[in-house]
Amino acid sequence: MDVPTTLQTEPPAPVEIPFLDDRRSTTQEWLSYDDDSYWVPDSLDNAPSGFICSKRALTQPLEKLGLVTPRDARRWTAIGTFNDPYWNRVKQGTAWQDVPAQTQFLLWEREAGGYGILLPMLSGDHVNTLQGDPGGVRLFAASGHVNRSEEQRVLAYSAIGADIYTLVNRSVQAIVTLSKTFRLRTQKKVPAFVDHLGWCSWDAFYSKVDERKFLSAMNSFEKGGLKPGFVILDDGWLENKGDLLCSFGPNREKFPDGIESFTRKVKEKFGIKFFGIWHTLTGYWGGVDPESALGKRFAVLKSNGTIRPWGEVAKNQWLYLVDPREAERFFTEFHEMLKASGIDLVKVDGQSALSEFSRPHCGRVSAMRAYQQAIQSSVERHFDGG
Q1: CA–CA separation, 100 vs 77, rounded Å?
Q2: 211-223 and 258-270 are packed helices; what angle lies between their axes, rounded to 10 degrees?
Q3: pTM score, two decimals?
Q4: 8 Å CB contact between 107 and 114
Q5: Which of 93, 67, 304, 344 is nearest to 196 (CA)?
Q6: Residues sharing a CB contact under 8 Å with residue 177, sequence separation 6 or more, in sequence order
Q7: How far apart are the first and last CA of the chain?
Q8: pLDDT band at 246 (very low <50, low <70, confident <90, very high)
Q9: Helix (H, G, I), strand (E, B) or coil at 285
Q10: Residue-wise pLDDT tens digits, 101-134
């Protein structure tokens, strides 16, 4: 079923900076910014680091914000999606106007020695990014939501330091401490399967995988004297109609005896310790078929977006997203079925495309937070974090 496009989700909680008014500063010797922004140090000891904040509320789905200029940069490295929703890319340069749009991480080498860093942050339901300008880099904020004014004013974090690794670690830790919305990798449990050699079916068979081909690959490993510790059955196993998911079950033409029987066969015959399986964050590439029995059990948001931006002509198509408020139930039911079938871990694809599905129904940060909380809690419960 479709729900109205006026859907409202809970906005992210504001990020509060203690002593905000008392700690404002107008300039830094190594960084300048225009009158649209102000600076708040992240510590009381005047360390060369802090937060760039907006003087005004964010009111539009796409906002062009202030200009930021590192004053003594020799050369820079930028990391971002660069208008591609799936993969981060890296670019280096010396001219600020060459910094690509959608930059999410900017590092520069300083003429005076050492390095500087600029990390755009989330401002409520707005995602902040950088784009090159002849005078520096411009901050942009995008939410995809037309009905929300955002009072959250923190736009980015910046710092300088002598050691590049210490600088990056200290900067990310500062954002963790302020936002309280994520943890560092070192603070998370490492799943057991990462200590084993693994194999994934994708590069061998792409979406043409079936039971016969998968077992043939396992036989080839056995003949070569190699036993993977874990395997992943990638895209091609689910029951789908085009880009839409029809059920939590397998394509019976490819896996006639079902996933539970197939998983047991692979583990018993080849001694595989961990069996993983693939799905996307939205169920399948285009979401859930609203006319299927599965789709009719959930509220489904209909949107028009581009999930394949490559090629000569990027095409829009209808996308169907399970309402973020029902994401927890969606993943719980899906993963309960997988766990009962002998699955030990999941590979979750297509995560960065969620904004194509959520626009214009709800803010992209709210939607992503709801989905990440739902899937991570489900994975923790069903697969011990794997």
Answers
A1: 11
A2: 10
A3: 0.90
A4: no
A5: 344
A6: none
A7: 32
A8: very high
A9: coil
A10: 999 999 999 999 999 999 999 988 889 999 999 9
